[in-house]
Structures are given as structure tokens and as C-alpha cells.
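Q: Predict the assembly, please.
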Amino acid sequence: MTALIPHSWLNWLGIPPWIWNPLSISLHAALEATVVVAIVGIALGYLLAKGHFPGRGVIETVCSLPMALPPTVVGYFLLTRMGGPGPIRDAEVHLFGHPLTFTFTGIVVAQIIESFPYCMRFSRTAISVVDPRFEQAARAMGLSRWRIALLVTLPLARRGIVAGVVMAFGRALGDFGATMIVSGSVPMATTMPIALYNAVFYGSHEQAMVLALVQLGVAFVILLGVSRLGKVRPW
Amino acid sequence: MTAALEVTVTRHIGEFDLDVAFAVESGISVLFGPSGAGKSLTLALIAGLARPDTGTIAINGDVVTDCAHRLHVSTQERRIGMVFQDGLLLPHRSVLDNVALAVRQASGRRARRAIARSWLERVGAEGFADRRPGSLSGGQRQRVALARALAGDPSLVLLDEPLSALDSPVRRELRALIREVIISSGVPALLVTHDAEEAEELGDVVISFADGRVTGQRIVERPVRPEPPQGPPGSTESA
Amino acid sequence: MKRRRDIAQTLAGRHKAAVLVVTVLVGVGLGFGVAHLMAGSIAYWGVVSGPFLITLRVAIPATLIAGITGVASGYVLAKGRFPGRNVLETLGSLPIILPPTVIGFYLLEVLSPGTRVGGFLTRVVGHVFVYNVYGCIIAATVAAFPFCMRAARTAIEGVDPLVEQAARTIGLPNWRVALLVTLPLARRGIAAGLTIGCARALGEYGATLMVGGDIDGKTRTMSLAILDSFTTPERNTMLLILVLMAITAMTGVGLLGRSRA
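A: Predicted assembly structure:
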């Protein structure tokens, strides 16, 4: 597992391992998750905003589920599907050589599922409020569907879309329940929220304060950015 | 005799400059002019829904807006009734409830509903008193809006293009109703319209508006009919 | 003909609420029956009922408190014109992406008798708020609040200001305009926010774990209990009841969609 920044740099800066280890794991996992979520989320948001196919409402509801379900249910589901016998586990073994439970990739999967709805809903709302006349003009100019989407619709909706991606990133960073269940809570190899939990329960109050403060600051910055960007509200 | 309404105001919005002064006596006075001339804005200022930059407004002798002395009586405390172009009745309440809510001179649910019902009769809307505004036609809604505006025993009735959203045949029908009900109620009224025919038919006085200014004022010749004002419905019943 | 239509309309209006309540009750009752039957023996229900009842004890007050405070805050944010309005909304929205353990940590800091603030609070109120149901309720309320607040704000902002103006012209004071006009017109969005808030309170895990302590019989909610039951036979019952919760979540999300349209 590679770190984003060399450990030697961080040690030199005076940041102890009990911070930068979970921090780098959190950032790394959240970044990977957000890349996947952004691609799929924007695409699905576009389809749901523009498409008129049967079952549209059902798909949107199902995709939004993780936002409202207990994270333990999501984690539980992932644990049994990815770890227990079944087609998903077989696929994992085939692709990765081992089941994904209790691994870094498993964490990424959990975060993808938990943060996906945020990106999709923001994108959907942002795309659906784009003035259709721009697209109509583009159609009159003879542009294909693909090019209209890429050159007209998405750029016009970029504020809301970026807000959705940032929000998803924040959610991935902050995930606790699903990540915890899927990956266990091995100290020194976990995400920031789990590290905080461990710090509280194994009594290191000082460490807990620092970890909490860092995460609070990050969440605040992310939310501020989202509110500046997206005057679009998915709820 | 105190004028029912005295207005002297200025208001500046973006590129638009409003600077008007006029007075209204009894009967129906019409603010007539093209769209964008500032008529609806003037009405909003009189109603207290907007504030002028300078000037005063007095309703029935009571000063409700005085910029120099920073006086601005809230809309709810000006005893006015207002009919909007889109009716703007509460969609989640019945017609009767809508009008009853406006009755402020009586207390007790039954008394308020009784007054509401008699006003609905006056405007020919008693047939749908228990229905929701959403199930009514535009013309029916405006009848109810008129009843609501008058039910609260106002000192002044304001009508902002009340018929502009309706079809011609309905419009003609309601014009006669508006004139008849308002004149017989004895409440002075100020009506905004850009329709010349409407201005002639409804107004006792026509005040012309253009580009935020009053450009003229004239009295409409009407055959004099010796009809004493009836006043609000309740007062004639006890006789 | 006309009168029959009017009667149907009035019936639909007044009794819609009653019909909804009955439907929900029947649905929940059916769900219970099904879960009970499928769970097999009553012993499982005995084990499951504890966490389930605790979850109800926590989620219902939490949703109510979050709902009332959320609507009030949403109203102030929608109508108010003061500097720092958006900063306030951001602060109130923090629990949406704050890791639940951070929420739990700061709640412990404030409520735990060991700390300065918590000790003071405990002495003043005379009641401990950690490691019991009250802590769980507070944690769930904090988690649900932002959803209620944001949905309420959006819904209230969406009310046609002209209708409110019309209500002012007939003499209704501002508080009556809010109660009789603004809030009823915003009720769909507010209801959607309540449902999502409720779903969030039902599913709260991280903060509840830290503030409540996962005490069997006292603070072990369904979200917590599902983990411990992972290898035991009653997990199917747990799962079924959690599915009921999922249905609530779906309804909420579905309502959200429809209210936006």
C-alpha cells in the first residue's frame, strides 16, 4: 500500500505516525472512492435527469438508499456479500486474488457505496436545472447527443456537479460504520474516524482531541466549499 | 372632507424612477397606463408591501407611511383589502375559510363565517363556499378574492389588474360585478389596469400613468343614479 | 353530481391523514407479524425486542426534537436577512459529513461528567446524559437535525411570497402568516426532511456507540445489536426489522423526490 507523501517528510514535519497513518489511509481511500463515484455518479445523474425510461424513480430511490440506511446495514451487507460465499466473492477472488473484506480495497468499496448518493443527487439536480434552450440550440447546430452532453450540459452544470463530488469526498472521508464493519478496526491501519474511536476507547484523550479537531476542520472547509459552489440543493 | 387616500412618493429601482402624487376620493379611481409605468409598484407602496424612498401616504386621514419621520405602518395594520391578478387565495383552505380569515371586525368563528357567507353571496360565489380554490375557474377565484378583500371592512380597496388573467367574456361579466359590489359597499377603491375599455367602464376618475409619473387625471362622465351606499352586509340585516 | 364530487374532495382532504396513519399502522403490524412468523420461536423475538424498543425510544423523540428545531431554524434561515446566515447554515449542516465518531467525541466532551462543561451541566440539571438513553437521543437528534433544517429551509423558500403578501393584506399578523400560510404550503418538503431525518436517527451508529456505550438492555440500539448478532441465529429477525427501517428510508427518499418536482 503506497502512501501519498513519503513518511520521512511527515516525520520531519513533526507529525507523528498515529496521525499521518490514518490520515493517509483516509485520504487515499477517499480519493480512490471519489474518482469512481464521480464518474459513475455524474453519468447516472445525467441519465436520471434526462432520461424518461420506466423504473426511473425506482432506480433513483435505490441509488439514494445508502444515504438513509444505517451504515451498519450497508457494512453488514458488504461483509456477507464480499466475504461470505457467493458470486460476488468469487468475482473478487478472481479479480484480486482474495476476498475484499478486511482490506484497503474493501474500505474503498464501502466508501464508494456510502458516498455515491451524494454525488448522484447533486449532479442530477444540477443537470436538471440547466436551461433546455441551450441544448436545443446545440441540437439545431447539428451536434450529436454525446457532444451536447460534454460540451453544453455538463459545463453549464459544473458548479453543482463539483459540489456533489466534493460532498462525496467529504462523506467518504467521514465514513465510520460501513468502513468499520468491512475492515475491522486494526490499530495503525485504519481510517481517521476509526482511529478516533480507538483513541477514545483505549484512553488516549490527547490523541483523540487532535484527531477530532483535524476532522472537524476538514468537514467545515468541505461544507463551506460546497455551499459556495452549489446553490443547488438535492434536498 | 378627508380624502380616502393621499399619496406623494418617490421610489427608485434600478433604472426606474417613480415620482407620483395624487389623491383619491370616494368611488373607483383607476390607475391607467402601459405595462411598466409603475402602477403596480404604486399599489404595493400603498399597501405597505414595499417602502418608498421619500414621501408620505395617508389612508382615510391616517398617515401610514412617512419617510421623513421613518414611519411605516405594517401591511396588516392598514385597513385595506387587496385583489391580486392571480387571486392568491390560500390553496389548502376552503373558499369560505379564505374569506372568513379576512374578517377582523367580528370575533368568534360563527360570526366570522356568517359575514364571510354574506359577502360570498354578494359576489355570487356562495355556490362553491366549501370548495378549494384549486378546483375553481379563474373567474370564480377572482369573485372570491373580491369577497375576501371586502370582508374585512377595509377603508380602501386596492385591485391590481384583477381581470387581466381572464378571458374576454368572463372579464366583461366580472367588470359589471366589480363596479356594482364596490360602489354599493361604499368603500373607495383604487384599480390598476392597462385596458382602456376597463378604465372607462369601471372608473369614476382615471389617473394616467406613464414612465413612473402621473400624466393626467380626469373624471369619467357617468349617468347619475341616485343609489345610496348599502354598506357592509351585516349592517342592513338588523334594520 | 357536483355534490358527490365535493364530498369526495372534502373526505379526501380531512381524512387523508387518518388514512395514512391507518395504512402505516397496518403496514407495520403486518411487518411485525411476518417478522415474528419467519423468526420462528418467540425466544428470538425476546432477544430482538430489546434493541428494537430501545431504537424506538431513541428515534422517536430524536425525530420530534430534530423536526421542531429543524423547522424553526429553517424558517429563520429562509426568512431572515442577517450577515453570517450561510455560515450558520454551514455550522448546522456539519453533522451531515462529520464522521459520527467526531460527533460522538464532542458530545462526550460536552456531556460527560468528567469534563468541565459536562460536569457543570450534570450538576445544574441533576441528570447524567451519557451511557444512557438520553445520550443516545441527543446523538440521534444531532444526526437528524441538519436534514430537517435544510429541507425546511428549501421548502419555506419555495413558498410563493405573493401568497404570504396577500395574507398580510387581510390583516393576519406575521406569526399567523407563518402558521396558517407558509408552513402548510411548505409541508411536503418539511415532511420529506422529517422522514429522512427519522431514517438517519434510526440508523445512527457511530455517535450512539460512543455516547451511549452499547450497554445491552439500555443503550444497544438495533444498529449496534446487528453486529453482535452476526453469528447468532436471531440475526435473521434483526435483518427483517432492519429491512422495515430500509422501507422507511426509501419512503423518505421517495417523498424527497416528489416534493422537489
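Chain A has a mean pLDDT of 82. Chain A has one domain: 16-50+58-229.
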